[in-house]
Amino acid sequence: MAGAGLTGCLAALALARAGWVVVLVDPLQRETLLSRQRAYALSQSSLALLQQLGLASALASHLQGFDQLTLAANRGRAQARIHCTDLPRDAPPAIGWIAEHRPVMATLLRHLDQTSAVTLKLGVAPSSFPGLAGEAGDGNWDLVVAADGHRSMARQTMGVRCWGWRYDQSCITVQVHLHGEDSARAWEMFRDEGPLAVLPMGQGRSQIVWSTSRARAARLMAMDPPSFSRALAAVLPKAVTLITVRNAPQAFPVGLQLAQRLQQGNVILLGEAAHCCHPLGGQGLNLCWRDVGCLHALACRVGQRQRSIGWLLRRYGRQRWVDTVATLLVTDGLLRLFTPGPLTRRRWLLVPLQRFSLALLNRWGPLRSLVLQAMAYGWGPWRRRGMPQEYTSKLSQATPARSR
Q1: Exposure string (b/e) for 107-144, b if CB count within 10 Å is 16 or more?
Q2: 244-262 pLDDT, tens digit each
Q3: Is residue 130 a part of any domain in this protein?
């Protein structure tokens, strides 16, 4: 396997749990892998996968649940609220959970260290990994998994091209302390310059994911801390007040990307090596982890000698296309609908459609349920996996109590 990020590490553990022997390599050292200052919104599908792989108990204390999501557009004049009661009654009592990068990454690395079936090689250049020599791996390995990010060297070595485009946006992430924050409510605000998400992390802390034009993002990143704080305070929801910025903001460009093939020879592309989307709705990591869930289910069949490796290679690509393409198209469509830009001529046409969409979502329960299930479990046939009561109880403790 190439790539020891969150997706690569989880995939290595999934293969090991399925009875495979895994070699995982990454050019980065351990502390570099741990050092990313970021938080993620994990969906129901991601939590079900963690439970299935025996990681849920170790991570439960690092998760902050939220049971409400407020969608807002037109400077807050149009809103829709989604609640966890819009999910099936047997689902854990939250829409999602916020997890910081470092404790999750540290937990995965610790479990890799403790798993005898996994050999972890950090600080190793991918070119020195024999499984990635040649155009599509070689005969030394039954399966080669490339999970080395959106600039995947493995994908480039294979000669697999990508569809997609870059948006005229950059995404700024920063952690803050807020006053007036509801610790069980997340925000997704659709602004002319791009969406802005407020993800509650507990104890007054929040992760801000702020999308704006590349030019403005460059100006914001060049500001001194007081000036940046004032600019951020001006775009936050009126219900909250910025107290302090907890870390240095980071910016990265955003776009849509899909590999033209998810499998070639004995190599499969996993996670951002296969696809990237706008962080709207927090779908990126969850889509990657649904890749891992699919791979784990197929690898278990092969590990039990019920199916061949060739079957896994063919099946993986077919199973992941619907969910992947649908997620990319939906996030792109929502971005174009709700972020027309302040000067675009079609803005006056889109504003009524934005208001109608959010009003319909706010008033029609079946539509909220459909949208929330797609966010929670992905597209295509939904396969909700039950969770043990002990696990559900631990997740409930991480979510402020509310009525279902």
Answers
A1: bbbebbeeeeebebebebebeebebbeeebbeeebebb
A2: 999 999 999 999 999 999 9
A3: yes
Structure token pair of residue 46: 């991601």
CATH number for the domain including 57? 3.50.50.60
What range does the domain containing 188 cover? 167-253
The length of the chain is: 404
Task: Assign 2 to helix, strand or coil.
Answer: strand
- One domain for residues 103 and 234: no
Secondary structure letter of residue 297 according to DSSP: H
Question: What pLDDT, in 10s, does the model give residues 5-56?
Answer: 999 999 999 999 999 999 999 999 999 999 988 899 999 999 999 999 999 9
**Interstrand relation of 162-179 and 96-100 (parallel, antiparallel or unpaired):** unpaired
pLDDT digits 0-9 by tens, 130-149: 555 443 444 578 999 999 99
CA distance 42 to 95: 9
C-alpha distance from residue 364 to each of 78, 373, 376 (Å): 15, 15, 18
Asked if residue 344 belongs to a domain, the reply is yes
State the DSSP H helix or E strand holding residue 272, giving kind and residue range, or none if neither. none
Q: Which two tokens stand for residue 214?
A: 């590349």
Which tens digit of pLDDT belongs to each residue from 78-125? 899 999 888 888 778 889 999 999 999 999 999 999 999 999 999 987
For the beta carbon of residue 350, count every other beta carbon within 10 angstroms: 17
How many domains would you assign to the chain? 2
Same-domain check for residues 141 and 202 = no
Residues 220, 224: Cα–Cα separation, whole Å = 9
Residue 189 near residue 72, CB atoms below 8 Å: yes
Same domain, 241 and 116: no
**What is the C-alpha separation between 291 and 288, in angstroms, rounded?**
5
The Cα 213–Cα 192 span in angstroms is 10
Largest CA distance in the chain: 61
Distances (CA, A) of 38 to 287, 354, 355: 17, 30, 32
Residue given tokens 């899909």 in the structure block: 258
One domain, residues 271 and 127 = yes
